[in-house]
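Why this split exists: single-chain examples teach little about how molecules sit against one another. For that reason, every record in the complexes split bundles all components of an assembly together and asks for one structure covering all of them. Below is a record exactly as it appears in the raw files.
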Amino acid sequence: MNSPLAALFWRELRIARSIGGGGAMGVVFFLILVSLTPFAIGPDLNLLSRIGPAILWIAALLATLLGLDRLFQGDADDGSLDLFMMSSTPMELVVLVKCAAHWTLTALPLIAAAPLLGLTLGMEPASLAGVAASLFAGTPALTLLGAIGAALTAGLRRGGLLMAVLILPLTTPILIFGVASAAAASGGTVPFHTPFLILCGLSLMAIAGAPFAAAAALRAREA
Amino acid sequence: MPQHQSRQPDPLNLKGILAQCLRVERGGRAIIRDIGFELGAGEALLVLGRNGAGKSTLLRALAGLLPLRGGEIRLDGSAVGTPLAELAHYVGHSDGLKAALTALENLAFWSRMLSQAPDGALSPQAALQKVGLARVGDFPVAYLSAGQKRRVALARLFVAPRPIWLLDEPATALDVGSQEVFAQSMAAHRASGGFIIAATHAPLGLVDAKELRLDVAKPTQGMESAA
């Protein structure tokens, strides 16, 4: 990784960890959402352990998208985005590095927390591992799809909701194959690797394609 | 200093800028029509005009932040293949600083992000010294005053040497002393063969600057047409 991108990565981490940066917001939101669900459903352990992967995945989806609307908004507000455009680093790489930093800060803690929260839902060990693995493979796609929405709404004052409306329908395949591979890990008719490899494919597609879409959206922001 | 040397020819070697028949639109309306100018090394251009005449629009288009709908910009020198945006610094209405980071961290980041040739660049400390803010380098930018923030933004010009300075009201919020220091910096930049294109209402202390007036022959244009 060349030096401007490393500098950008560390800057993103430092900003998110500072006061008001919102770095830990996603994982706290995830925690609250998952621990609220048993109260709504009731103390039926069989039911909880069966729908556990789905609960964890929906919570992860919402938690990942929660902070994403700010991905480019802050830089658009203070003029940093203009300067990124003028650097010799391609905007696509800037988008990719910003997504990587966001993923490190939001998704990684979430992946670490998911098995622990799965325990409170009465999930089996195989299923816990399946959820963690499927989140690890699927969250990059969520972050990068969200980045397209964040780039499209970067110029708008209240773009957060619009971004969620734009992006949530597009996350359907990731949710389907994420939950499917988590469920397949604890038995079932489908072998684990079938949905898991499709999930990996979705993430790789997002990594390859989304930076171009997001960078194009950022360039067209003012024209 | 980072060893980031992306191009073989010296990016600072720029001999002239020729802009012809520029046309820039915003929201489907032409804000800039048939504007042209020619600058040689060490020359400055003052873009003048009333509010809404398109001064900021012109500077943003030159910085590559708005697309040109017509006309062309030709560069002369060994930097011909490089887009003008990568040869230029842009100091606009917003300072490009992160409030949570210190002034030094902000400058160190922009020096790594924007610099093309490590030679000739000031260290973030030296650049802050130059704008008279050496003492507040460790402060988060959030605690600085508007004028101090602007001075940190101007210090960016020194940490990553680029031949063209695009300045949009650069003296906003600067006190008299800082304005003089900045005028000296601009003179030094021109003496070393740099270019300055500035949009301003206040005198910047640029001697022998060319002038480009934008508000003549635009009677139909509304006040609200440009930011």
